[in-house]
Design a protein that fits this description.
Helix content: 25-40%
Number of strands: 7
Shape: globular
Largest sheet: 5 strands, antiparallel
Strand order of the largest sheet: 1-2-3-4-5
Radius of gyration: 23 Å
Number of domains: 2
CATH topology of the largest domain: Nuclear Transport Factor 2, Chain: A
Order of helices and strands: EHHEEHEEHHEE
Strand content: 15-25%
Length: 146
């Protein structure tokens, strides 16, 4: 685990700046617990300083992960953000979108139904024990409605 070089740090900060903007100062200079960006096996970690000092005693081969993985460098040395950076970006994002909970539930139902149709070969099992086929009309066993 080592500190980032100038070119690596520039790539990471420009990528974070596109999502966070001027709030990047809040990420790098935290007052509650100082954090740093470290590189380990082509992955960039956002690590608390006290945790980083304790990890010095662990060898590079034995160290698997440390802190929050926010991204990685590809084989062509380009920086890509990973899913682990979402918590960090959500707290300091420039633009925040808030949706209604009802819309999210409807969206989740549609996605889960479509996923169930694809994985179950065109059939969806209902909660009352009946079945439905995929198509424009939904035929449910035990019901005369189409």
């Amino acid at each position: 685990m080592r500190p980032l070089e100038e070119s690596e740090l520039e790539q990471v900060l420009t990528k974070l700046f596109t999502f966070v903007g001027k709030n990047i100062e809040n990420i790098l200079q935290r007052t509650d617990a100082p954090h740093a960006l470290r590189l380990h096996k082509k992955r960039v970690y956002y690590v608390r300083d006290d945790v980083m000092k304790r990890a010095v005693s662990i060898g590079r081969d034995q160290l698997v992960s440390l802190g929050t993985c926010i991204g990685k460098f590809t084989h062509s040395d380009k920086f890509k953000l990973t899913v682990g950076a979402l918590d960090l970006l959500a707290a300091h994002a420039k633009y925040k979108v808030r949706g209604r909970e009802i819309a999210f539930v409807r969206f989740r139902r549609c996605v889960s139904r479509a996923h169930a149709l694809a994985t179950m070969g065109g059939r969806v099992v209902s909660r009352n024990g009946g079945w439905a086929t995929a198509g424009r009309r939904l035929a449910v066993r035990g019901s005369t409605r189409l």
